Amino acid sequence: METKPAVIVQPPDDIGLRKVVIDGKIEGKVWCPHELHQVLHRAGVPSEVDIEWRGGDKDVWPARNWRRRISGTLMAVGFLATACICTWIGVKDSLDALTFAGRVTGVLFLCMAVVEVIAFVAVFDYWRKRRVIYSGPALMLGALVELLVGLVLFAMYFVNKDRPTYEPRLVLWSVLLISSSFALWMLWRRRVWKVLRYPGRIAVGAIVSTVLVITNLAYTQVYLPSVSRPLVQGAAEIGKPSLSEDGKKMYVPIRLRLKNSGQVPVNILGSIYWIHVKLASDPKDKYQLLKPGELVKPPGRELSPQEEISEDVVAEITDPGSRHYEAVAAQVEAYAVRQDRMIIEASYERSGEWRGKLKKEGKDDEPPAPPPVDKEYLRYQSVISQSSELLNLTRGRQRVTVWWLYRPRPVVYVKVASPDDRKDFDLNNPEEQRQAADRYGLAFVRGAMVQTPYAQLLKEAEEQRPRSR
How far apart are CA 397 and CA 375, in angstroms? Predict the structure, then answer.
């Protein structure tokens, strides 16, 4: 007599799947009668066999396919989007970040991308047959990483953005937060961690890892930019003067120096020197400019640690014997930026344009120049790249602008802001410069003013003048 196989259909689980057990062995999980017939056919069991129904008869199939598919789709989209973002940041920062800490952050993002890919694959198992017992915990870990990435991007955006406004990328980050919150809520209700042997220990490990990631990001992206300013020093030396053969001109040689005395390389965004005489006759006009100029040409040049740039210039004074001057003075000023905080495009050094040409092209207000706007100026400008792709993503595009202004005393100004910023340059508000100093290590270099009494210079020049026989 032929023995008929014992077929048992278990009660439906939380998503409507019913296990099919044949002779004590689980042969599969099914959503509907059609899938049940397929399982029986594969096992070689006739469909007319007697079936023991548990937790509901042959008419109980509570699977809600539309809800299951929507839930799985939302989770899959969230995991895939997070994996793409983490991969983009991780690849760029692990290879091209300007600091070691930035590259470590890139590796962390690559690790999170791997977690998201695993969670993405686990979606198709958890919301279908659940053949892998750990697919549920994989989804929960992926949802936690997705939530962490969304929170980090949002937090860094509002911390680093000058004026937070609506941007398309905020929509993507909002989707990450909504998708991850929805996934965690559903997975928490289903208590997917119950399949783990030591869920408490794993939870503690996940919390510790999350704290370490957040601490590393806070240290590298918030703390480090606020410390360790570059150390660049400017100096001027007035040399031995000389007179022309007819004695109608005096030439004063001056050596100008700019040295990086710090430990990190910098780029000189803009520099200026001026040589002037101090007047003794008119207290309303204390100084008269003799010679201004740029010390570092082209601007944007790298200055390595302990490297020095020097230039010798000669100031010319006509009719030196009839001048009533008190002293000749010289000074150097410059703006330097840490090379490990930003990358300046190579076109920066060739971007110099005079006010007249900019005004003719309608570009003199991009951004508005510092006052007095009616004076002549030379402007350099370039889009910059942050020290890491994470900062590029959260801060958005940034641009550095340097003005070399002709005023009664020439001066250099620097502004780092978004290309869309049309805010007037406020000379009395140091907040912009302070913010740039924190983010990019921007340093204003002002060398000590060197003065030599005019009478002393004139005497030295006359002493060196050849005596006529």
Answer: 29
197: pLDDT confidence band, cut at 50, 70 and 90? low
Cα 49 to chain center, whole Å?
67
344, 412: one domain: yes
Domain boundary among 31, 53, 75: 53
Please give the backbone phi and psi of residue 422, each rounded to the nearest 5 degrees, phi first: -115, 20
Q: Is residue 58 part of a domain?
A: no
Final residue in a domain of this structure, among 185, 201, 226: 226
Q: Quick: pLDDT tens for 415-437.
A: 888 887 777 777 666 666 777 77
Domain carrying residue 12: 7-53
Give me the pLDDT at residue 314, please: 92
Residue 364, Ramachandran bin (φ over 0: left; ψ between -120 and 50: alpha; else beta):
alpha
137/276 same-domain check: no
> What is the per-residue pLDDT across 327-348, written as a single tens digit (0 to 9) for each?
899 999 999 888 888 888 888 9
Same domain? 398 vs 349 = yes
Residue 242 contacts residue 461 (beta carbons within 8 Å): yes
Q: What pLDDT score was predicted for residue 87? A: 94
CA distance readout (Å), 288 to 211, 242, 284, 285: 60, 20, 11, 7
pTM as predicted: 0.71
Would you say the C-alpha torsion 219, 223, 225, 230 has a positive or negative sign? negative
